[in-house]
């Protein structure tokens, strides 16, 4: 099975942002995507807005960018569409917000969007698909050729905990604290073709794998492979799908900058003849779990011998090492916004702080998320985050909310190329 890859000439960037439609009076999700999208589609070809789309559930509108050269351009593109969507929602007394999971709504109450592929997904997957009341941010970064795509995907798995902890925004499920920073990541990986990518040897093996899945009728097309990081042949990109939904455009920009810088760095290392490292699959799996559980307080495995490092420190080091790349790509400001997350608190920390301050009220958590999107300003909970806490243990905000919130609880032989340095 040959899969053409539409190579990108440079490390362009595109973003998909899944937004929740919320009734501010009840704080519950509202299944009003059709009404909002019909309003937005007026005056557009076939009545469809080019950058606002259905997702699986009717309580979701996904907004997307075009192909952008800088993160700043991508943020401006998203901001324009967000303003349109927010206005259409406002006409109906509704509002938009974003988080990895909704703090209190029940997935069983949600309506499925009117698209035959979503109906087929539900029919095929049943319960794992029905409960996908989850929301994420996906970042595409252009790659110059299929021969680069798989090595870059493999190497990027080393940074899954960085992205997951920084974006972690799903501590709650149906009104109860899961004890996780990212419950969304665990819900989504229950689908058979979701979760961690397989570490493949190259594009030819990727094509062979896709052929097996299609021939066995596991999937109908490669669009149904929802790995945390995957090549996207039609766009000529590597797509990072690991991030939870983020409440502010500023945080979305930070994750886009980190994505663009890492992919560009790895691409240039391949150009210089380096062999990109492929982390051990069991370490990748364990580190993802640690980030999903402890978020920024995770202690991740940094060497095969079992040495560990505080994830906050690893992120700080990575941001500093990527600074020259960010300067060249014009996204230094957005890359440094990752430090604001470290200093002011990730969304899962902010949500727990809001719950703790209100005696465990999930309505207060929803209100804080609505406010953050409306103002594009993450609330600062640095005063309740213990940055000196031991990695792998709950920080102060985690401990406080656990007490207050309900349910807390891999011819002649060719010598191998030198291995690339870590980004």
Tell me the overall shape. globular
Q: Indicate the structural class.
A: alpha+beta
What is the C-alpha radius of gyration, as a whole number of Å?
21 Å
The CATH class, by name, is Alpha Beta
Q: Using the 3D structure, state the CATH architecture.
A: 2-Layer Sandwich
Query: Mind describing the biggest β-sheet?
Result: 7 strands, antiparallel
N→C terminal distance: 33 Å
Total strands: 13
Low-confidence stretches: 399-417
Q: Helices and strands, in N-to-C order?
A: EHEEHEHHEHHEEHEHEEEHHEEHHHHHH
CATH topology: Creatine Kinase, Chain A, domain 2
Would you spell out the secondary-structure blueprint of this structure?
Blueprint: E1 13-22, H1 33-41, E2 52-54, E3 60-64, H2 71-90, E4 95-97, H3 116-125, H4 127-130, E5 136-142, H5 146-156, H6 160-167, E6 172-173, E7 176-177, H7 183-188, E8 194-195, H8 203-215, E9 226-227, E10 229-232, E11 237-244, H9 249-271, H10 281-294, E12 299-301, E13 308-310, H11 311-321, H12 323-329, H13 332-344, H14 347-357, H15 362-375, H16 396-404
Helix pairs in contact: 1-2, 2-9, 5-9, 6-10, 9-13, 11-13, 14-15, 14-16
């Amino acid at each position: 099975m040959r899969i053409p890859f539409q190579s990108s000439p440079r490390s362009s960037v595109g973003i998909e942002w899944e937004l929740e439609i919320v009734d501010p009076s009840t704080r519950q999700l509202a299944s009003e995507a059709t009404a909002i999208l019909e309003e937005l589609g007026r005056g557009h070809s076939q009545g469809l807005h080019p950058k606002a789309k259905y997702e699986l559930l009717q309580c979701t509108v996904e907004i997307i960018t075009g192909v952008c050269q800088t993160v700043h351009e991508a943020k401006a593109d998203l901001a324009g569409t967000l303003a349109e969507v927010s206005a259409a929602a406002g006409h109906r007394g509704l509002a938009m917000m974003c988080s990895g999971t909704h703090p209190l709504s029940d997935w069983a109450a949600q309506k499925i969007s009117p698209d035959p592929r979503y109906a087929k997904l539900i029919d095929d997957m049943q319960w794992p698909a029905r409960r996908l009341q989850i929301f994420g941010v996906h970042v595409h970064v252009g790659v110059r050729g299929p021969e680069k795509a798989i090595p870059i995907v493999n190497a990027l798995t080393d940074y899954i905990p960085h992205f997951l902890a920084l974006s972690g925004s799903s501590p709650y499920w149906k009104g109860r604290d899961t004890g996780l920073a990212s419950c969304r990541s665990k819900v989504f990986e229950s689908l058979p073709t979701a979760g961690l990518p397989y570490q493949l040897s190259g594009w030819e093996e990727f094509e062979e794998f896709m052929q097996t899945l299609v021939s066995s009728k596991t999937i109908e097309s490669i669009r149904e492979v929802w790995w945390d990081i995957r090549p996207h042949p039609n766009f000529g990109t590597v797509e990072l799908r690991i991030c939870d939904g983020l409440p502010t455009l500023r945080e979305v920009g930070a994750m886009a900058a980190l994505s663009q810088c890492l992919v560009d760095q790895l691409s240039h290392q391949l150009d210089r003849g380096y062999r990109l490292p492929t982390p051990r699959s069991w370490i990748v799996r364990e580190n993802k779990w640690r980030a999903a559980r402890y978020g920024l307080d995770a202690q991740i495995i940094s060497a095969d011998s079992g040495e560990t490092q505080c994830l906050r420190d690893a992120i700080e080091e990575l941001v500093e090492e990527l600074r020259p790349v960010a300067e060249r790509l014009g996204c230094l400001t957005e890359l440094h916004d990752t430090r604001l997350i470290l200093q002011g608190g990730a969304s899962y920390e902010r949500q727990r702080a809001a719950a703790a301050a209100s005696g465990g009220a999930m309505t207060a958590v929803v209100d804080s998320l609505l406010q953050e999107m409306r103002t594009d300003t993450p609330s600062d909970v640095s005063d309740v985050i213990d940055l000196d806490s031991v990695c792998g243990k709950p920080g102060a905000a985690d401990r406080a909310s656990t007490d207050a919130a309900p349910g807390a609880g891999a011819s002649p032989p060719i010598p191998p190329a030198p291995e690339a340095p870590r980004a």
